[in-house]
Amino acid sequence: MNVRRRLIPAALASALGLGALSACSSDSAATGNTDKFDVVASFYPMAFLAEQIGGDHANVTSLTEPGQEPHDLEISTKQRAQLEEADAALFLKGLQPAVDEAVSQTGIKTKIDAATLTTLEDHGSTEHSHEGEEAHAEEGHSEEEHGRDPHVWLDPVKYAEVAQGVGKAFEKADPDHAADYKKNTAALVKKLNGLNGDFENGLKNTKTKVFFTNHAAFGYLAERYGLTQEAISGLDPESEPSGARVRELQQEAKADGVTTVFYETLVSDKTAKTLARDANLKTDVLDPLEGITDKSRGDDYFQVMEANLKALQTALGAK
Q1: What distance in Å separates the CA atoms of residue 291 and residue 96, rounded to the nearest whole number?
Q2: What is the pTM of this model?
Q3: Is 258 strand, coil or helix?
Q4: Pairwise CA distance, residues 232 & 279, whole Å
């Protein structure tokens, strides 16, 4: 769809093995997909939306590779070229500063910021108060600076709101396929509503409402289903907790009947397992779905979220 592409002869493209690559790649411009709507997404939750809504009409490329921690992403020269050649960029401002900067510097016409499609809230301040201002200053991510939690995709209701906004943006940017984008968006929102129902029913009656996580990714999920997230670290998964914070969590585990410390697949589990050992607690995975890898408990967003629900039900003592 993008007319600014460099053409590569079909024989050369085949020889280079480029046929299977996304048409968004700056090196695979003319593999027969130039009539598609090319979307560059910042990381997995945005790419998943683009793929589900775009369907057969979209070529989607993610700036964050599977297994890469999205907070740490740096944008390469090749990726900047991909952004320039794309028809749309889909990102979540505040999560990845390097992406925010790169998108702002491109001439891409359709820039879709998921943070503007739902309401972002502050879930990080309580965790940071335990860690001290020094740790807060060191993190330096824009979402911490403003106290806004970007992890909206872990709340199916908010994720559905974002999906609806993305669908409308696709319709406007590629009106020839607007009807299909609208249909795909409606189907995705219906599935997300069903997932919300699963969580509501599955977490309605539990022995405890408190769960421990490695970092504060699950604030929206906790708020949606009447739970309390206690994070070892703050919104930054790499920040180290203070000794006082660890001791406080050990005491709270006893007081609130906490059984499990959750860790995640893309960052170190060392701190979570140390706390669990010292407090005589179990460990399990609660996946913040920032990327899908071979370690993920499922192949896509819905499968991993269902696995998260089962892990929470077990840890919280669902009846």
Answers
A1: 14
A2: 0.82
A3: coil
A4: 13
94: left (phi over 0), alpha (psi -120 to 50) or beta: left
- Rounded to an integer, what distance in angstroms lies between the CA atom of residue 296 and that of residue 264? 9
Residue closest to 156 by CA, chosen among 313, 317, 308, 318: 308
DSSP string, 118-161: S--B--SHHHHHHH-HHHHHHH--HHHHTT-B--GGGSHHHHHH
> What is the C-alpha to C-alpha distance for residues 70 and 65, in angstroms, rounded to an integer?
8
Cβ atoms of residues 219 and 121 within 8 Å: yes
Q: What does pLDDT average to over the chain?
A: 83
Q: Is 56 exposed, middle or buried (0-12, 13-18, 19+ CB in 10 A)?
A: exposed
pLDDT the model gives residue 132? 36
| Other Cβ atoms within 10 Å of 60 Cβ, number | 25
Enter the tokens of residue 290: 């920032």
Q: Which amino acid is at 104?
A: S
The Cα 118–Cα 152 span in angstroms is 8
Q: At what angle do helices 44-54 and 178-202 cross, to 10 degrees?
A: 130
Residues 236-264: tens digit of each pLDDT:
656 667 778 888 888 999 999 999 999 98
Q: Which two tokens stand for residue 162?
A: 């974002």
Q: Look up residue 78 and give its DSSP letter.
A: H
Per-residue confidence (pLDDT) for residue 18, from 0 to 100: 36
Q: What is the tens place of the pLDDT at every residue in 142-181? A: 444 446 899 999 999 999 999 999 999 999 999 999 999 9
Around Cβ 245, how many Cβ atoms within 10 Å? 22
Instruction: Output the DSSP codes for 173-213.
Output: H-GGGHHHHHHHHHHHHHHHHHHHHHHHHHTSSBS--EEEE
Digit-coded pLDDT (tens) for 186-206: 999 999 999 999 999 999 999
Largest CA distance in the chain: 68
Predicted confidence at residue 275, as pLDDT, reads: 87
- On the question of pLDDT at 24 being above 50, the answer is no
The single-letter code of the amino acid at 40 is V
Chain Cα centroid distance, residue 48: 9
